[in-house]
UniProtKB/TrEMBL annotation:
<feature type="active site" description="Tele-phosphohistidine intermediate">
    <location>
        <position position="9"/>
    </location>
</feature>
<feature type="binding site">
    <location>
        <position position="59"/>
    </location>
    <ligand>
        <name>substrate</name>
    </ligand>
</feature>
<feature type="binding site">
    <location>
        <begin position="8"/>
        <end position="15"/>
    </location>
    <ligand>
        <name>substrate</name>
    </ligand>
</feature>
<protein>
    <submittedName>
        <fullName>(African queen) hypothetical protein</fullName>
    </submittedName>
</protein>
<comment type="similarity">
    <text>In the C-terminal section; belongs to the phosphoglycerate mutase family.</text>
</comment>
<feature type="active site" description="Proton donor/acceptor">
    <location>
        <position position="79"/>
    </location>
</feature>
């Protein structure tokens, strides 16, 4: 069977503050996750990955740093661009842009941040990556919440409207194994 691994980056300084987007570094907890992840793959607790794909953002590169495999930074794996709301907390967004906040709440899938993106936009830019990934085996994808919701939703045949609400927790390896046409999912919560 074909196996692909997915994980969010370790907790970032922005995650700690509840701020969205940006290019923050890992928090101390996030760094511990990076070590645990490297240990997991380097010690053959799982298979040896042939490649690690990250986004271009610091938090995914730092998370992948210790894994012994060639790394590739893929622009299409960057997190949802929140446009004018980058760097805000959800409370600040609600205060400063109440109409935007309400619109997003009404249709999170299609809502596009001004000067930014929607979940549908992410699906569009992910298409080539998803096609390439289907040809791969033992690749580890270190990504972001919204992007991983789209990727996992695609492989698991989720309904489009469910994508923005899929649960992709931090500090967890999502192992997808394909038996021909159907993907089996396993969540490995790392003790850190
Ligand atoms: O909060 C982390 C984060 O990755 C943000 O950068 C991003 O805007 C957000 O999650 C996406 O999640 P949601 O669509 O639920 O706001």
């Amino acid at each position: 069977p074909q196996t692909i691994y997915f994980t969010r980056h370790g907790e970032s300084e922005y995650n700690v503050l509840g701020r969205i987007g940006g290019d923050a570094a890992l928090s101390p907890r996030g760094e511990r996750y990076a070590l645990a992840l490297a240990e997991h793959f380097n010690s053959l607790a799982d298979v040896e990955p042939v490649a690690v794909w990250t986004s271009e953002l610091r938090r995914t590169k730092q998370t992948a740093a210790g894994i012994h495999a060639p790394k590739r930074a893929v622009r299409a794996l960057n997190e949802l661009d929140a446009g004018i709301c980058e760097g805000l907390t959800y409370e600040e967004m609600q205060e400063r842009f109440p109409q935007e906040f309400a619109w997003r709440d009404q249709d999170k899938l299609r809502y596009r941040y001004p000067w930014g993106e929607s979940y549908i936009d992410i699906m569009t830019r992910l298409r080539p990556v998803l096609a390439a990934l289907q040809e791969e085996h033992n690749v580890v994808v270190v990504g972001h919440q919204a992007v991983l919701r789209c990727m996992l939703g695609y492989f698991l045949d989720a309904k489009l409207d469910e994508l923005p609400y899929m649960n992709v927790p931090l500090h967890t390896i999502v192992k997808l194994t394909s038996y021909g046409y159907k993907y089996n999912i396993e969540m490995i919560k790392m003790p850190i």
